[in-house]
Design goal:
Layout: H1 2-13, H2 23-34, H3 40-47, H4 53-88, H5 107-121, E1 125-126, E2 132-134, H6 135-138, E3 158-160, E4 163-165, H7 171-179, E5 184-193, E6 205-215, H8 220-235, E7 241-248, E8 251-260, E9 277-286, H9 288-294, E10 302-308, H10 310-318, H11 331-334
Parallel strand pairs: 1-5
Antiparallel strand pairs: 2-4, 3-4, 5-6, 6-10, 7-8, 8-9, 9-10
Helix pairs in contact: 1-4, 2-4, 5-10, 7-9
Bound molecules: 3,4-dihydroxyphenylalanine.
3,4-dihydroxyphenylalanine binds at residues 168, 170, 210, 248, 251, 282-284, 305-307.
């Protein structure tokens, strides 16, 4: 018992080392004295239960008291070191680390993926085509008349000869029908190019998702049902859809689809410009002239097609006021839509 009390006395001397210790020395002292296996004080405490009742009480009380003193002194020094580190601007090694940013998908990539996934669940597969197209695939085979303004060099980026940057994803309809016999059910995501100004609502580069269904007996009912089902999946189960007459050279009849505004539920707000409706896509029944251009028998087959812009859809869904935000790589904007 004498020995143990003497050992405690010697240990107590070491309390004076703590206020001078630096970060590393502090860790060493902690291990040397309070370490779970070989700490000097830990070893003394381990012997306490083996003593007779009388000395057990005395040594136990003294050892536990000293343990509290060491713990308090170590904690105080740790706080003091952290304070000076912060004040001097040096790294505070006691701070927990920051989670590393591992990157995330761009919002437009996410929305495009979501759109394609919904159609995938309805049995569509994905098709893609090149961004450099022929005038024939981009316009002529899609039944654009020769004098259509879109064909003009004022509106499209020509690359020389009859090559141009595709102005929409619709030419992939032609490529798909020329390559695969019906039945066809495809969604086609991809980048498109137009000679548009770069302002809040236009960009010369933008994304589209195209769709094409070709089979025997496909009717306008299939078009309406499929696209309405898509809108309910994408915007929520209470979403209503409205089809209004439109015109595209490659579809007849053609229809624009609007969805009831997902922000206000249709009562009118800023997002839907008080109308309660948001234009989502263009669509229509594939024009027989398009079938003929691709070698598909228009007497036997019918089909529907549609096209939409994921950027625009992301803008209305998330209240994004300016399309240019998608191109600026500003992490303050992008990180809001990606979890690390
Ligand atoms: N290609 C059209 C555009 O760029 C969008 C579109 C409308 C695609 C109707 C279609 C469709 O397939 O049926 O504006």
């Amino acid at each position: 018992m004498r020995d143990l009390l003497a050992a405690l006395g010697a240990l107590r001397e070491r309390l004076t080392e703590i206020p001078q210790a630096d970060q590393r020395r502090l860790q060493d002292l902690k291990t040397e004295i309070l370490g779970r296996k070989a700490g000097a004080l830990t070893k003394i405490l381990a012997q306490v239960p083996k003593l007779d009742p009388e000395p057990r009480r005395a040594v136990g009380a003294a050892a536990n008291e000293l343990k509290r003193e060491f713990e308090a002194a170590l904690a105080a020094r740790e706080r003091a070191l952290a304070r000076t580190a912060r004040a001097s601007g040096a790294a505070d090694l006691t701070m927990p680390g920051r989670a590393a940013w591992t990157g995330g998908l761009h919002l437009v990539t996410q929305v495009t993926g979501e759109i394609c996934e919904i159609f995938h669940e309805m049995g569509f597969t994905r098709a893609v085509g090149p961004e450099v197209e022929t005038e024939r695939n981009n316009f002529t085979a899609l039944n654009f008349p020769k004098d259509h303004p879109a064909i003009d060099a004022q509106d499209s980026f020509y690359l020389g000869g009859d090559l141009l940057l595709r102005t929409h994803t619709s030419p992939v309809q032609i490529r798909t029908m020329e390559r695969y016999p019906p039945p066809i059910r495809v969604v086609i995501p991809g980048q498109c190019y137009r000679r548009d100004p770069f302002d809040a609502s236009h960009s010369p580069i933008f994304e589209q998702v195209e769709g094409l269904v070709v089979d025997e007996g496909i009717s306008f009912v299939d078009l309406k049902a499929s696209l309405s089902a898509f809108a309910r999946k994408f915007f929520g189960p209470t979403t209503r859809t409205r089809f209004s007459p439109s015109f595209f050279p490659f579809t007849e009849p053609s229809a624009d689809m609007a969805a009831s505004c997902s922000v206000c539920g249709g009562s009118g707000c800023q997002t839907c410009k008080q109308s309660g409706w948001i234009e989502i896509l263009g669509s229509g029944m594939v024009h027989p002239a398009v079938f003929e251009a691709c070698g598909v028998d228009p007497e036997r087959y019918t089909g529907f097609a549609f096209g939409m812009g994921p950027q625009r859809i992301a803008m209305v869904r998330y209240g994004i006021p300016d399309i240019r935000l998608f191109f600026e790589s500003d992490m303050r904007f992008l990180a809001q839509f990606s979890t690390p």
